[in-house]
Structures are given as C-alpha cells and as structure tokens.
Amino acid sequence: MTVPSQPTDISERREAAWKELDQLLLAGRLRRGTASEISRGATLYRQVCRDLSRASQQALPPEVITYLDSLVSRAHSAFYADAGVVWRKWATFIFSDFPRAVRRNWTGMALSTALFTVPLVVTLLKSAHSKTFAAQMLPIEMLESMAEAYAGSLSDGRGPDANAAMAGFYVYNNVGIAFRCFASGILFGLGSAFFLVYNGAVTGAVVGYVTGAGSGTNILTFVCGHAPLELTAIVISGAAGLELGQALLDSQGVGRLHSVWQARGAILAQVMGAAVMLLLAAAVEAFWSPSAILAEVKWSMSGVILLSVIGFLCFGGRTRGASR
Amino acid sequence: MATRAATQPLGDGGSIASARATSSSGKLDTTLSIETPERVVFSHQLAGPAVRSAAYLLDLLIRGAFLFLVVVGLSIGSIATGRFSGVEAGLVLVLFFGLEWGYFVLFDLLLAGRSPGKRLLGLRVIHESGRPITASESVLRNLLRAADILPLFYAVGLTTMCFDRTFRRLGDLVAGTVVVREPRLRLRNQKVRVPHADVPGLPPRLRLSREELAALALFERRATRLGHSRAEELAEILAPKLRARYGLGKVRAVDLLLGLLARASRS
Fold first, then answer.
1. Measuring CA to CA, how many Å separate A105 from each of A108, A267, A274?
2. In the predicted structure, residue B191 carries a pLDDT above the cut 60
3. Confidence class of residue B190 from pLDDT cuts 50, 70 and 90?
4. Domain assignment present for B96
5. Which ipTM did the prediction report?
C-alpha cells in the first residue's frame, strides 16, 4: 500500500463544511437568508447527510457521529419547517373554516346543545319555584349576593373602572371554561359532557334563583346582549370536545390516533372560533350589558346579535354551489 | 408501536416533510430515529417524565415571577397615584389568562418549540417526523394541558407518558408531537492518534460491523489514558473473536485492535 500518510479521517477533511453549515444555522440564514445562502446551505446539508451515512460505516469516535446527528437534525428542522404564522390563513380559519366545521359537526352540536340546555332549563324552572333546590346546588351566600346584585335596575349603570375589571374576569373565566370543556373531550367525550351539564345546571340555578327572588326581568335584560354569543360559544367548544371523543371512539377503520389527526383541523377551527366569540361576548358583557341603556334597545340588540350568530354559523364560508 | 410509524400522516396542510419516524421498534430504548427524504437516518434522544416535569416547574416559576413583578409594579403605581383603577385589575386577569393558555404557544412559535424552561434544560418539542411544530400543533398540544392536568398535578398526563413508548402526554398524542433532548453540541476533534503497528496478514476487506467499529474507536480513545496491562486486558475481550475471523496467530490484542482501526479509517 502506497498511501501517503496524510489525514484521511472524515472529520478532518470535512470539518470546514460542517462548521460552515453550523454557522449558517446559528445565524438563521437557512430561513431568512439570501437565495445564494439558502442554496449553499442546501448543498452543505446534502453533503452532511452523506457524511453521516458514511460516518456510520467508518470507525469514527461516537461523539463525531452524535455531532453529525445533531447537525443534520437542526438543518432538517430549518429546511422542512412550516412557513410560520400566516395571518391571512387565520382569517380564513375563523371566517370560513370555523362555521363550516360547526355545520359539518351537526351531530356534535345537537348533542352538545341538548347536554347544555336540558339541565339549564330543568334547574332554572326548579330553582325559580323552590329556593331550597338552588341552595342544594350552590352556596346560599353566593346566590343571595347574586339576587342582591340584580335587585336594583341597571338605570345607573356601572363605573368604567368596574367594567374594565369585569372584562378581564370574563376573558379569564369564560374562555378558560370553554377551553376546559373542549380539552376534556379527549377522555372519550365524557369530560366535555360533564362540563356542559355542569355549566348548564349552574347557569340555570343562578338565573332561576334570581328570578324566584323577583328580579327575573333585570337579570334577563342584563344577559340578553351577550348570552347569544357566550352560550353558543360554550356549546360549540363542547361540541368540538365531543367530536374529539367521537374520533377516538369511532375510528372508522384507521388507527385511533390517525382518526384524531384527521379530525383535528376541524376541531381546532371550532375551538378557536368559540374563543373569538367569547372574547366578543366578554366585551359586550363588560361594557354593553351593565350600561344604563333602555331595556327595549338592549333586547333589540340581543335579537340582532342572535340573528348574526345564527346567520354566520349557517352561511359563513359557503361557496356558490357547495352543499355545506 | 411499529404500525404507528408506518401510518405517519404528512402533517396538515400538505407538509413537504415526508420524513418517517420510528421509535427503534421492539427495543426498550429512548431514541426516536427519523429518516429524512435524503435517505439519511438521524436519531433524537427522547425526554422522559422527570426532565419534562422539571422543565414545567421552571416555566411555572418564570410565569409566577413575571406575574408577581407585574402585580407589584401595578400596586406601587396605584399607591403612588392614590387610587385603584379597575383597568389594572382587568389587565392582571387578562395577563393571568395569557400566562395560563398562551405562554407555551407564544414561545413554541418564537423559539421553535422551546419554552424558557425547556430551553434551560435543553429540551425541544418537535413533530414526530422531525420537523418543527406548526402553530396549530402548538395550540392543540397546549390546549390539551387542561385534560393532562386532571385531576391534580398532571396525573393524567404523567400516567399517559409512562405508558407510551415515546413519552407522549395526551396533548402530544393529539398534536402528533414528541419532546426530545437537544443539547447544543460542538465538535471536539480528536487529533490524538495512538501510535500503532501494521498488522500483517489482514484481508483486503475487513467486514467490520458498525458496532465493532464504534467499539474500536472507543477503545482507541481510552487506550491513551490506560496503563499497558489494563489496555491489553480490555483489548483481549474483543481480540479472540477478531483473531479467529481473520485467521491470525499470535498478535498482541492492543496492536490488533489499533491496527484494524487504522486500516478501517483509511478505507
């Protein structure tokens, strides 16, 4: 063998190329670089891939292989990453994918509506007639403070400071409830069902108790503005959770996880749409509902909001000639 | 678990990454091997429940500290101005909401799958195919925390993790993500070569397996720090097998191993 004794180790010959790719990655030039930088990066990446497959055939220190592993994985991540957040895509997501997903999930919507409204109506009627029924469900101090809060009419309104504080509370509390109601659907839909029944029952008990205390008109005039947005959004997030549970249970011949993955785009559209609706509802509930505006105006506005919600969910995202 | 790898979807929105992932099927190993479209396989070390809990606690601490500072700042402000404004209370509640539901999504997108806690411990969330996670995957895996956290202290999530080969909690299962260890590595070049003699009588093709090559390379590294007799003792573990394979007679074990290594790295 007449091989001259020069460095033949792959790590010595190729180190410069590896460092160059490493530098491009560190500077983020594969994502935001010029055309020539990206092209150079692609060439280097292919070379490093080849080096890695060769390295595993050769006697190299394990740490060189680990190093190449991490270099390839980092470059792979940079080259095959998603395009990032595209805001226009999110607009389509909310304005057309969301109502479409709600319509396609009509069975989930029907079940979710039933799970929410049936307990609501039952507890409302029962606690309007008997104070002890409501007291069995919720702490009496809380019920009494609610009844007291709605005893006076809203003619004097609420201060702007209190409004702002309540807006924060509604965002924190209501959107959180909707998210929990959705996420627990992974427990084969049971979690969503529980949260729907629970929230329906509590809402019914409170409204029923206040009505029984003689302030029914006041509380209904208060909630009429935001209720169409808020309650619909809770029902939608529950329906998304039920769809998640259904995808897990009835996998239609594919693996259970695969079945969930097929449904997740539609599910996410419903949850995000519900969240946007709840943010709108929080603004209405904090600034419009407690205001001193005439009850007639509030009820007319409530009708407008209700019709807009129904119209949006029924017709949003429809294209000419499409069936759904 | 092997069937899971075979039915890997290409991600939503027709992702171009057609990489395939296998969790070294059959073996009780904590690596995830990913085959890229370039037909090269690289592997990730998976992060287990312990290190992930630690990262979560760090994130909790960071969020708590941030909230505390904001509340203290606002309180000082309202004491200084002499009036408490409801706007501040509203802001704190919105911030509370943001920290609970938006913190992880924000950092997943800003730092490519690394919340500050994960970053400190060298962890990263990736899609199972090896590419970084998308916005929708991040939103899903973090929304599902509400289920993983049930009934207390992430009991559901930790239990799911312990039963899954790639340590996924419910959020990971739904979003198709895994958490991997990603230490930042620097190439430490091993210039030190142990002097060796050529071994006469070796065939032109050595036919050494990958594991054998790795063992030889490891031995070379250690040989510089070992005494003569200990090096010989260690080399003698592998040497009889190699002597038999190449039909060699009396060759010192250390010479044999280093000679083979030199030949292998030259080819």
1. 5, 9, 14
2. no
3. low
4. yes
5. 0.83
Partners of A167 on chain B (C-beta within 8 Å) are 90, 94
Chain A residue numbers touching B2 (CB-CB < 8 A): none
Q: What's the pLDDT tens digit per position in A235-257?
A: 999 999 999 999 999 888 888 88
The per-residue pLDDT for range A4-15, each reduced to its tens digit, is 444 456 777 888
**Would you put residue B41 in left (φ > 0), alpha (ψ -120 to 50) or beta?**
beta
Q: List the B177-181 sheet strands across, edge first.
A: B20-22, B31-35, B41-46, B177-181, B123-127
Residue B166 within any structural domain of the chain: yes
Give me the residue from B90, B97, B146 closest to A164, CB to CB: B90
DSSP bridge partners of A264? none
Question: For position A3, what pLDDT does the model report?
Answer: 41
Name the domain count of chain B: 2
Structure tokens at A261: 């993955």
Enclosing domain of residue B89: 49-181
Name the maximum alpha-carbon separation found in chain A. Answer: 106
Residue with tokens 């108790």: A209
Residue B2: pLDDT band (50, 70, 90) is very low
What digits encode the pLDDT tens for the residues A104-113? 999 999 999 9
Closest residue to A186, CB basis, from B42, B174, B185: B174
In a domain, B15, yes or no: no
Q: Clarify whether residues B156 and B216 are in a common domain.
A: no
Q: Is the pLDDT of residue A1 over 50?
A: no
Contact B187 A76 (CB under 8 A): no
* Three-state secondary structure readout of A114-133: HHHHHHHHHHHHHHHHCHHH
Q: Is the pLDDT of residue B13 over 50?
A: no
Q: Are residues B101 and B173 in the same domain?
A: yes
Confidence of residue B9 (pLDDT cuts 50, 70, 90): very low
pLDDT-based confidence at residue B194 (cuts at 50, 70, 90): low
**A230 within 8 A of A288, measured Cβ to Cβ:** no
Query: Of the residues B131, B163, B181, which one is the last residue of a structural domain?
Result: B181
B85: chain A residues, CB-CB within 8 Å: 161, 164
Which CA distances in Å does B61 have to A300, B50, B55, B56, B206? 48, 17, 10, 9, 56
Chain B positions touching A260 (Cβ under 8 A) are 173-174
**Domain co-membership, B116 together with B235:** no
Residue of B nearest to A192 (CA): B147
